[in-house]
Amino acid sequence: MGIPGLGEVAERVRRYTVLVQPGGRGSGSGVIWNSDGTILTNAHVATGSRAEITLWDGREFTAEVSLRDSRRDLAALRISAPNLSVATARDCARIRPGEVAIAVGNPLGFLGAMTMGVIQSVGPLRGLARRNWIQSDVRLAPGNSGGPLADVHGRVIGINTMVAGSLALAIPSNEVLAFLLGEMGGHWLGVMVSPAYPPKTGEFRTGLVVVEIEPGSPAARASLLPGDILLGTEERVFSSPQSLAEVLRDNSTGMLRLQFLRGDYRKVRRVTVSLTNAARRRIAA
Fold first, then answer.
1. Do 192 and 214 belong to one domain?
2. 23 belongs to a structural domain
3. Which H or E element spans position 7?
4. Residue 110 and residue 45: Cα distance in Å, rounded?
5. How many domains in the chain?
6. Residue 187 bears catalytic tag
7. CA max distance for the chain
8. End residue of a domain, out of 29, 51, 78
9. Which residue, among 104, 108, 105, 156, has the nearest Cα to 134 in the 3D structure?
10. Within 13 Å of residue 147, how many CA atoms lie on the same side as its CB?
């Protein structure tokens, strides 16, 4: 599989991939997400309140777990370190089956190991929770969990999480962005969404279908339902999960006026949602 500049791309991905050791038995991988020292990994990797982090250049740090969501299987850690190599995320709504994917991690004690494969599908997988997965045939092993799944340009498209049969499953980058709103001071809506293309309804050509709603969330209290298609707000149309995440991040009032479709696609419905500050959802171990 000849890819120009593959060696340089692999090295770039290795530099933002870290070894995560939560204490006790086992270890995993992580991704340096921001220059402020935020590291992303799986919640099942960062099981305690702290973890030992080893960077590509051998530097070692003790990280504090600042955010955890067991349902998404994501955790954010924070270290204080200069000169960090930081990942660049790609909008996973643009990923297509057949693209080449690169996984880097620390499987079975081999630091910075790389494997390649092809993306098979992006979407739900029967038998698992109702959520989207990036499904590929890259070869993962214990220790890869929490590490990056990247495209051929070295941009993160997902966080490697598990193996199901012959498929490697990664949490999409847009879901990681929504999870991190708790770190960035945004608001929480409590929905899992997937890009959708509704029937022509006035100005709306794209939307986000609600796949799942978290019980007790602002979305649940506003009586939104799975299957609803979120079209946007009065100011912005939703074109990807990232656009919803940005609206939640930038919201200053705590109130969100949503336009959506339900059942009769000829009628645009509206609802005002009272949001929750995402920082309140930080989970102390």
1. yes
2. yes
3. helix 6-15
4. 17
5. 3
6. no
7. 59
8. 78
9. 156
10. 36
Contact between residue 240 and residue 265 where contact means Cβ atoms under 8 Å apart: no
Residue tagged active-site, from 29, 66, 136, 145: 145
Alpha-carbon Rg for the chain, nearest whole angstrom, is: 19
- Residue whose tokens read 């990994």: 41
Query: Which of 73, 91, 151, 228 is the catalytic position?
Result: 73
C-alpha–C-alpha distance, residues 112 and 115, integer Å:
10
Look-up of token digits 């994501």: 74
Take residue 168 and report the two structure tokens written for it.
Answer: 């490697």
Q: Element (H or E) spanning 100, and its range?
A: strand 100-105
pTM for the predicted model, two decimal places: 0.69
What whole-number distance in Å separates Cα of residue 267 and Cα of residue 144? 46
pLDDT for position 285: 27
In tens, the pLDDT along 130-157 reads 778 999 999 999 999 999 999 999 999 9
Amino acid at 27: S
Instruction: Give the pLDDT confidence of 10-31 residue by residue, as tens digits.
Output: 999 999 999 999 976 789 999 9
Domain extent, residue 142, equals 92-172
Q: Of 125, 110, 130, give the one whose Cα is nearest residue 168.
A: 125
**Is 44 marked active-site?**
yes
Most confident of 16-20, 31-35, 66-70, 273-277: 16-20
Q: Are 54 and 60 in contact (CB under 8 A)?
A: yes
Question: ∠245-20-149 over CA atoms, to 5°?
Answer: 50
Dihedral pair phi/psi, residue 68, rounded to 5°: -145, 140
For residue 223, indicate whether it is catalytic.
Answer: no
- Two structure tokens written together for 178: 């929504």
Q: Is residue 257 part of a domain?
A: yes
Query: Residue 53, Cα to own-chain centre: how many angstroms?
Result: 20
Q: In this predicted structure, what is the pLDDT of residue 279?
A: 52
